[in-house]
Amino acid sequence: MSLPSSTPPGAPASIPVPPLVVKWSGLTDRGRVRLNNEDAFLAMAFDGREVRYLGKTGEASLVGTEFLFAVSDGMGGAKSGEIASRLAVDRIAQLLPQHFAHAASDDLSGRSEVLAKLFTSIHHDLLVLGASYEECAGMGATLSLCWLTPTRIHFGHVGDSRIYAIPAVGGITQLTDDHNHVGWLRRKGQINEREARSHPLRHSLHRAIGAGIQSVDPHIGTFACGRGDRFLICSDGVIDGLWDRHLDELVRDQTGAPAGQSTAQRIVAEAVEKSGRDNATALVFELCEPSA
């Protein structure tokens, strides 16, 4: 005896939906004024057995693998800002896989707990380093990261780097708060985006990892994602040169892009051209169908 078909007679057969892949591009530039680059970024894939560092551009399947993308902007005297941001992203790669099994069930609270522990550990490491060496005193960094699964991103953030969501349909949304006085004024509705850019206290952080601050209070959240959605993580050097609407246009519209230029390259080049007063870093990733 044969089982009845689930497809009614005469109906077209369903077309299989290809599995999603993640495409990414990242770039950092010291800008036109700074002598050194205190920004750092990280792109990596992991599955509980191994960690794979990813290149500046690429594409990979989301089946059985999770991804992490992060940007850190260091601060401190001499070259301690460079050390702080580099340590932050290196420690992510060391610590996160250790907790993968705890959160691999896609439990939202489990991933939030892992991210909270991650920020606490990195914060502690920077405090110890800052207290141990005179040249590292007061060193600190911002840290904004996205942990990508096939259906959600889980994000953590401290400082004034930013995470944006650019969904397939709709405008650009800043997922993170700027942890400075200007960010607080914007959240209260007392100033707008244009006024924030020229405010004298725009670089004064209320929260950071390290920087002599005794405790860290990261902004941790989750955001549903699907086919066609894009996300941007960037340092404040990008924001200094580009408005939100420009970021939205650069991420969505690739028609005018020079051949071979990635989205991150376009964003950083535009930011440096428009401002260039600070280091500029952009890391863009999107969920889409595999390339032909």
Written description of the protein model:
With 292 residues, this protein is α+β, with helices and mostly antiparallel strands. The chain has a single domain (21-171, 207-220, 233-288), classed as PPM-type phosphatase domain (Phosphatase 2c, domain 1). Helix content is 28%, strand content 27%. It contains eight helices and 14 strands. The protein has helices spanning 80-95, 100-103, 108-132, 181-187, 193-198, 236-239, 244-252, 263-274; strands at residues 21-29, 39-46, 51-53, 57-61, 66-75, 140-141, 143-148, 152-158, 162-166, 173-174, 209-210, 219-224, 230-234, 280-288. Helix 1 (80-95) runs antiparallel to helix 3. The longest helix is centred in the middle third of the chain and has 25 residues, at 108-132. The radius of gyration is 20 Å and the shape is globular. The model is unreliable at 1-7 (pLDDT under 50).
Name the features.
Phosphatase 2c, domain 1; six-stranded antiparallel beta sheet; 292 residues; alpha+beta
Task: Compute the CA-based radius of gyration.
Answer: 20 Å
Query: In total, how many beta strands?
Result: 14
Q: SSE string, helix = H, strand = E?
A: EEEEEHHHEEEEEHHEEEHHHE
Whole-Å distance between the termini? Answer: 41 Å
What share of residues is helical?
Answer: 25-40%
Number of domains: 1
Residue windows where pLDDT falls under 50 for at least 5 positions: 1-7
Provide the CATH top-level class. Alpha Beta
Structural class: alpha+beta
CATH topology: Phosphatase 2c, domain 1
> How would you describe the shape?
globular
